[in-house]
């Protein structure tokens, strides 16, 4: 039974990437939490550095002027690239784990030190002049499948070998995907035999999905994907509330007040200071007392969220518990911005700053690099069409086509109740599909898990 569920899950729209996500637990929880927080702080430093200087909260300071000009030049370019990586050796990562009393295995440190996440965007005119950037929705627009003239690319690769494990591109109304499932398995210390067995189990009609597992380019029509998603939302709407994924609405006046609140929180807490040079790059440090800044930003968001409603007219965002603020470090955090030739070159943030008791010797810097005039994001040639509707049918077949002996070994499962049918409908699984999966031997929880993976 478990094998059926695993195969069906891996056959979801994100295929091998989903399998990779479920198999990536080797890197311990504390490190992942620190990395996520570090990414947020690093990204925040970029936004704060650009936003503070642009809105005049830094009053004609030399450091502020340099910072403002450095980030403005990113928008002047027709293409920009970002590279996110841990700027440390495997041994330094292991030392960081020991220092925070959360050991990191050498093999995990080896993998993490070699990985880099690359993001590129390009347009036929300066990025700052595109609709996406003018609306402040260059990345958020991806969810609406409307990139407004900006092409995007994401890739996960290795620094040493230059190997690419995953490559996703969004050009026009199409998404292109290429995944090295076997390479990812090796990266996680897993045997590639499982990938081979899965590829061999795919039916002939799998077509493009089989190509995806084999590391070839596949493509997807995002407009059709959006239509399919809307159909699922309609089928999920039981009349007891808004359809799943309903987009909240905001009062324009509230948005304006939100912007002012953010500027106020930033101007009161963020400072900018020149820190000399690193090689041939100028270093400007952006710092802020973490807790007051976070409290100010969260309160600004809560005011906005109070006026944000979903389809039911109910507030779309729950309030943030005040106790959560005590978990934010009550000290100043800093990120260094490197500027070369008047252009932002990188932002670095030491994750050790987030430790309960920072170690003065061990460090784990996270680096976000910038590259203007990066290669134009283009659609790959020869990508096979990926039909999501057919893909879901194949996933259903794979969930029900396992040998009967496996079902016998697990024993019969309890039939679904009316309440469970209703809950599955809310998750996007209609009654007929739920009944078929249940008859094939899948329990209520297994059907829920299957639906979650298929939705991606």
Describe the structure in your own words.
The chain has 18 helices and 12 strands. With 456 residues, it is of the alpha+beta class. Among the domains are: 2-234 and 337-372, no CATH class; 409-455. A 12-stranded mixed β-sheet has the order 7-8-9-10-11-1-2-3-4-5-6-12.
Uncertain runs are 1-43, 52-61, 139-145, 238-249, 308-316, 403-409
Number of strands: 12
Q: Total helix count? A: 18
Cα(first) to Cα(last) distance is 21 Å
Content-based structural category? alpha+beta
The helicity comes to: 40-55%
Q: Looking at the structure, what is the overall shape?
A: globular
Mean pLDDT: 73
- Alpha-carbon Rg, integer: 24 Å
Largest sheet: 12 strands, mixed
The strands making up the biggest β-sheet line up spatially as 7-8-9-10-11-1-2-3-4-5-6-12
Strand content: 15-25%
H-E order: HHHHEHHEHEEEHHHEHHEEHEEEEHHHHH
């Amino acid at each position: 039974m478990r094998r059926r569920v695993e195969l069906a899950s891996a056959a979801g729209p994100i295929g091998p990437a989903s399998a990779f996500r479920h198999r990536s637990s080797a890197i311990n929880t504390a490190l992942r939490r620190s990395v996520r927080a570090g990414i947020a702080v690093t990204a925040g430093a970029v936004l704060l550095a650009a936003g503070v200087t642009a809105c005049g909260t830094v009053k004609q300071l030399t450091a502020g002027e340099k910072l403002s000009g450095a980030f403005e030049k990113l928008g002047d370019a027709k293409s920009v690239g970002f590279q996110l990586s841990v700027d440390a050796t495997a041994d330094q990562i292991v030392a960081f784990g020991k220092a925070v009393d959360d050991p990191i295995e050498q093999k995990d440190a080896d993998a993490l030190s070699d990985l880099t996440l690359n993001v590129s965007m390009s347009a036929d005119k300066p990025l700052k002049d595109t609709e996406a950037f003018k609306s402040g929705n260059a990345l958020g627009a991806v969810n609406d499948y409307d990139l407004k003239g900006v092409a995007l690319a994401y890739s996960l690769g290795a620094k040493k070998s230059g190997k690419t494990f995953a490559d996703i591109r969004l050009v026009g109304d199409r998404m292109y995907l290429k995944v090295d499932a076997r390479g990812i398995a090796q990266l996680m210390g897993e045997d590639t035999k499982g990938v081979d067995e899965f590829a061999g189990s795919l039916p002939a009609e799998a077509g493009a999905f089989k190509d995806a597992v084999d590391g070839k380019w596949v493509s997807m029509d995002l407009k059709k994907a959006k239509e399919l998603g809307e159909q699922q939302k309609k089928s999920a709407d039981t009349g007891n509330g808004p359809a799943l994924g309903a987009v909240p609405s905001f009062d324009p006046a509230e948005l304006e007040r939100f912007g002012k609140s953010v500027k106020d929180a930033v101007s009161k807490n963020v400072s900018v200071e020149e820190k000399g040079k690193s090689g041939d790059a100028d270093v400007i440090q952006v710092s802020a007392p973490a807790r007051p800044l976070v409290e100010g930003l969260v309160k600004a968001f809560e005011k906005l969220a109070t006026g944000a409603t979903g389809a039911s007219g109910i507030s779309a965002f729950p309030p943030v518990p005040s106790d959560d603020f005590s978990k934010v470090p009550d000290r100043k955090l800093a990120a260094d911005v490197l500027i070369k030739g008047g252009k932002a070159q990188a932002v670095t943030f030491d994750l050790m700053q987030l430790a309960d008791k920072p170690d003065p010797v061990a460090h784990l810097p996270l680096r976000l690099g910038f590259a203007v005039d990066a290669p134009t994001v283009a659609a790959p040639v020869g990508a096979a069409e990926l039909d999501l509707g057919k893909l879901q049918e194949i996933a259903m077949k794979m969930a029900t086509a396992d040998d009967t002996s496996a079902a016998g070994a697990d024993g019969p499962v309890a039939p679904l109740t009316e309440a469970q049918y209703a809950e599955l409908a809310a998750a996007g699984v209609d009654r007929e599909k739920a009944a078929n999966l249940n008859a094939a031997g899948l329990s209520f929880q297994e059907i829920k898990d299957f639906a979650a993976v298929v939705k991606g």
